[in-house]
Design goal:
By secondary structure, the protein is α/β, with parallel strands linked by helices. The chain contains 11 helices and 11 strands. Strands 3, 4, 5, 6, 9, 10 and 11 form a 7-stranded mixed beta sheet that branches. Strands 1-2 form a two-stranded antiparallel sheet. Strand 7, helix 7 and strand 8 form a beta-alpha-beta unit. Helix 1 packs across helix 2, helix 2 packs across helix 3 and helix 4 runs antiparallel to helix 11. The longest helix has 25 residues. The protein is globular. It starts with 7 loop residues before the first helix and ends in a 6-residue tail after the last helix.
């Protein structure tokens, strides 16, 4: 180890500076002094004999060499975290960490219920829930930063071969109306009635909006004819707007359980149309799977899944093989040139 021109602390500092954009904010995030951060960077640049930062601007910008070191440094740090979690696992769920990822809707309304059940049984396990876009969540799983995730959007094509992608559940999208809307009194409405409504939707560039539009199109609903009167940036804001009588909206049924029980929203039925999307369970079969992740997969996931989902795919465990493979992969990458 003495032959390596960098330490793990130096890699952590490099990553913090890149994330924070300045030496001072990086020092604050790491709870060390700014001079200590600057000294470590100077030592690292001297040991590597290359500049890692372009100090001409207001932000700390990485040089090409800096980006190269950061890309490998993140893999090294991820492997170190994985190693620590594997060692913690020896305590047989008396501690350890479970990291679950989710896209926005599943992370807001579904995963908290699942985690609550898990914590009732395994109170000593620290659980982290990372809620991000489908793309960012999928990369977190691929990089080993997240144990498993439940997402509703489209998974990046470049990750399809490295991830195990399982059809997990069907998520119905409900048409919600203000309780005093004329259509709320009808047992069913017709598909053409949708074009008479004023709709409230998420921003057209949001992943959830694109998924909803795709699902509606598969149900022969022309989304171009829907009158979008207002775009908001959250499901909660949309529900409140509908409740206030500002329009109608399509939202996941998991997001409106409380409102339907309280009678503050109406859920309309469309004749001959059931709008559903698939929720996907993703994990990386080539990363270490902790006992906490296995317990969550075997005991909690089946309770919320659509009947008939393929739970057998979760039972493959590659613990010892995976750790060895990952180490070999990192060593091989460090010995080859950067191709990105």
């Amino acid at each position: 180890m003495s032959d390596l021109p960098f330490t793990l602390d130096q890699l952590r500092i490099l990553k913090a500076i890149a994330a924070e954009g300045s030496f001072k904010r990086a020092a604050d995030s790491l709870y060390v002094s700014q001079p200590a951060v600057s000294l470590q960077v100077q030592n690292l640049e001297r040991q590597l004999d290359v500049p890692l930062f372009d100090r001409g601007g207001r932000r700390a910008q990485l040089t090409e060499a800096g980006h190269l070191l950061l890309s490998y440094g993140e893999k090294i740090l991820s492997l170190c975290q994985e190693t620590c979690r594997a060692i913690e696992d020896l305590q047989n769920l008396q501690g350890g960490t479970l990291i679950v990822g989710a896209s926005q809707t599943t992370g807001t309304y579904l995963l908290p219920r699942m985690i609550g059940l898990f914590r009732q049984k395994y109170a000593d396990v620290a659980v982290q829930l990372h809620v991000h876009s489908t793309r960012r969540t999928a990369w977190g799983v691929a990089n080993g930063q997240v144990d498993l995730a439940i997402i509703g959007g489209e998974i990046p094509g470049e990750l399809a071969e490295s991830l195990e992608i399982i059809s997990y559940a069907e998520d119905e999208l409900a048409l919600i109306l203000p309780v005093n809307h004329p259509f709320a009194k009808l047992e069913k409405i017709q598909k053409d009635d949708l074009y008479k409504l004023q709709f409230i939707a998420l921003d057209s560039q949001s992943t959830i909006r694109k998924v909803i539009d795709q699902v509606l199109s598969r149900c022969d609903i022309d989304t171009r004819r829907l009158r979008i009167e207002m775009e908001l940036n959250s499901i909660e804001a949309i529900k409140n707007a509908v409740q206030s009588g500002l329009g109608a909206a399509f939202v996941s049924t998991s997001a409106i359980t409380k409102e339907l029980q309280m009678g503050v929203l109406n859920c309309a039925t469309i004749e001959g149309v059931v709008v559903k999307r698939t929720l996907w369970l993703i994990f990386n079969p080539n990363r270490y799977r902790s006992k906490a992740a296995e317990a969550f997969s075997q005991e909690i996931l089946p309770q919320f899944a659509t009947p008939g989902w393929n739970q057998e795919l979760l039972k493959t465990s590659r613990r010892e093989v995976v750790v060895t493979t990952t180490v070999d992969t990192v060593e091989a990458e460090l010995s080859t040139s950067h191709e990105d």
